[in-house]
Amino acid sequence: MYFIWLFIVTAFWTVIFGIAVILASPFDFKKGKILGNIVRCWAKTIFKTMGIRTEITGLENLDTSKNYIFASNHASSLDIPLLLGFLPFWIVPISKIELKWIPFLGWAMQAAGHVFVDRMDHDRAMLSIEKINKSLLQTPRSLLIFPEGSRTNDGDVKRFKSGGLSLGISTQMPIVPIAIDGTFESLNKNSTKFIKKLLAIKIGSPIETKTFKNKDRKKLTKIVYDKVKKLNMNVLSMKDIESISSDYKSRGLKIVFTNGCFDLLHKGHLDLLNKSSKYGDILIIGLNSDSSVKKLKGASRPVEDEMRRSQKLMALNYVDHVIIFKQITPKKLISELKPDVLVKGGDYELNKIVGTDEVVSNGGIVKIIPLTPGFSTTSIIKKRSI
């Protein structure tokens, strides 16, 4: 039912805004800027009509007066309208040529200056890249690319292609890694079922390209891929734990682990996590699920759901991964992760900290960090209720 409604809503607003774009195009003397604003309204209107919640983190990393090449993972047909609607930049996307022929949508995209690439013809694709390069030099604006080339089948980030990313070298525009979370679960290419979820845009720090030469294309592609992959993989599932742990340990990296509810993130939490990160190379946080928080704290908790809590944690520079666990304690998680350092905040006796035996038996250590006085979620809730 939701899928049919999404289709109707998208078709309706595409026709309305498509006509607006076509009518406005003769008066858009800035070659797409006015039309880009219409497209942004189109995207936001669809999400608002559908009641889809969105969240964007990392905007503080960007200067809105500058132009960037935004490089994102591609999980769903929702990705393009999501980014066009909520990134506050004049953006021209590189789109597959098949979209060019869709009535109203394709016409509107052409009028708004979207660039189309034939993915099946390498020579034509490279010619398109050259045209884009010249166009950007003549009329500077931001560019949106999906280096995977097509939508993922399983939600994982696929290998990046270097064609579009090479524009960062030729134009010397910074490349901004972006990870989109929630769109694959909401609407993926293998399903006609639409599920309402919080859709999140996670923005990384810009990658400067001025020192890269054309021969460095593969190196730059790998750097961008690793950044997007990291942003995308911050929230891990239990099935990812063993492989992630093995990978880091094989590279000689020390894993630090701490856990908690982190409901209404405050200075006490930030101090604990910042200090924890200094004990090793990789900081992984075990986050209590909504159901486990209710069991621990009562029916009125958590104040913020697990998605919002995890996203706030992921926005911190010193946090590498978050794992949501449903159990009351993280004992099972610690057993599988095998961290080198287990950190707990508060006034605890070593033998009463969950996971101590598992960590010590694997050659790890346990650290206790005193809590910052005067800060707690309970006190924040009480102040709000006054």
Gross CATH architecture of the largest domain: 3-Layer(aba) Sandwich
Radius of gyration: 23 Å
* String of helices and strands: HHEEHEHEHEHEHEHEHEHEHHEHEHEH
Strands across the major sheet, in which order?
Answer: 1-7-6-2-5-3-4
Keywords:
2 domains; 41% helix; alpha/beta; Glycerol-3-phosphate (1)-acyltransferase; globular; six-stranded parallel beta sheet; Rossmann fold; 386 residues; seven-stranded mixed beta sheet
Describe this structure in words.
Helix 1 (2-24) packs antiparallel against helix 2 and helix 2 (33-50) crosses helix 3. The protein has 386 residues and is of the alpha/beta class. 41% of the residues lie in helices and 16% in strands. The chain is built from 15 helices and 13 strands. It has two domains: 2-232, Glycerol-3-phosphate (1)-acyltransferase (3-Layer(aba) Sandwich); 236-385, 3-Layer(aba) Sandwich (Rossmann fold). The model has no long low-confidence stretch (mean pLDDT 84). 38% of the residues are buried. The chain has helices at 2-24, 33-50, 79-86, 105-111, 122-138, 167-171, 183-186, 217-232, 241-250, 267-277, 290-297, 306-314, 331-337, 356-361, 377-385, and strands at 54-57, 69-72, 91-96, 115-117, 142-145, 175-181, 199-203, 235-236, 255-260, 282-288, 321-325, 341-345, 365-369.
Summarize the structure.
By secondary structure, this protein is of the alpha/beta class. It is built from 15 helices and 13 strands.
